[in-house]
Amino acid sequence: MLKHNHRLALLTVLALLTVAVVGCTAAQEAREGKIGDKFNWEIIGIEPGAGIMKATEKAMEEYGLEGWTLKDSSSAAMVAALKSAIEEGRWIVVTGWTPHWKFARWDLKYLEDPKGVYGGEEYIATIVRKGLKQDAPAAYRMLDNFYWQPSDMEAVMLDINVNGLDPDEAAEKWIRENRDKVEKWFPEGEPMGNLNKIKLGYVEWDSEIASTHVVKHVLMDIGYNVELKAVDAGVMWSGIGAGQFDAIVAAWLPHTHGDYYAKVKNKVENLGPNLEGAKIGLVVPAYVTIDSIEDLNK
Ligand code: PBE
Predict the structure, then answer these.
(1) The whole model's pTM is what?
(2) Atom of ligand 1 at shortest distance to CA of 203?
(3) Residue whose C-alpha is closest to residue 146's, from 234, 244, 236, 248
(4) C-alpha span between 261 and 288 (Å, rounded)
(5) Nearest CA to 152 among 168, 134, 171, 169?
(6) 210-234 pLDDT, tens digit each
(7) Closest to 203 measured CA to CA, from 172, 234, 174, 227
(8) Most exposed among 149, 174, 235, 251, judged by the fewest C-beta atoms under 10 Å?
């Protein structure tokens, strides 16, 4: 009886293995000779909570990218993967966004998105907790006034990521060199208020490292103590909603962080764009000879 059972078990295992192997071969055949081979069937992503990751999952569905995986990593690891692929002339596709210093460093292009999954032009907004206006009127006014150009943000990012400055040095340097712009952000006559320490939440995306450090140093120039807290995207949004942060300058709207924003909308105050002309999408080196996300299926 025992023997019989053993044989049955063995046969079942064999049968399952055969199904698995045949299945694998079918999947392999479906992928054979396709463009995905040139990319190792991988899209190099960033931190799991980023809006661009959710958008990319949706894009993979809508463009029918079967057999592809979206690799979680970090913004720094994504850039490292891009760098080594370019050094070796390999094909690579990454989740990318503008403003970002990588476009100044390498010759890159966005893949066209004819289905509009990535949502077109974005702006980055400043969001504060309710009550900040009363607690720290001068800080509130500065945050409300904060507005700059993609080229400004890129200059700070380049100093950090290419010229080797640390984020505080890069922010101070930019402020020194752009006094005319920064003076327009200063509060005019508003009192400091009762709160002397301003807490800013942010995510360690290169763009947000740059903006948050610049705002930190301007608030310090006005006379506040400033604490920065690096968290992931979900915590940044729940934190501003719960009033654990006084402000964030990293709200990518209307699309990228649209669902995060919807959840806290009624609990926060939106001070509007601090930068316009932002964008997210899939990015490849210019030498990659395809132009559209649709081509990833060829
Ligand atoms: N990013 C940079 C973020 C917003 C800022 C595009 C990586 C995101 O996808 O959530």
Answers:
(1) 0.89
(2) 5
(3) 248
(4) 35
(5) 171
(6) 999 999 999 999 999 999 999 999 9
(7) 234
(8) 149
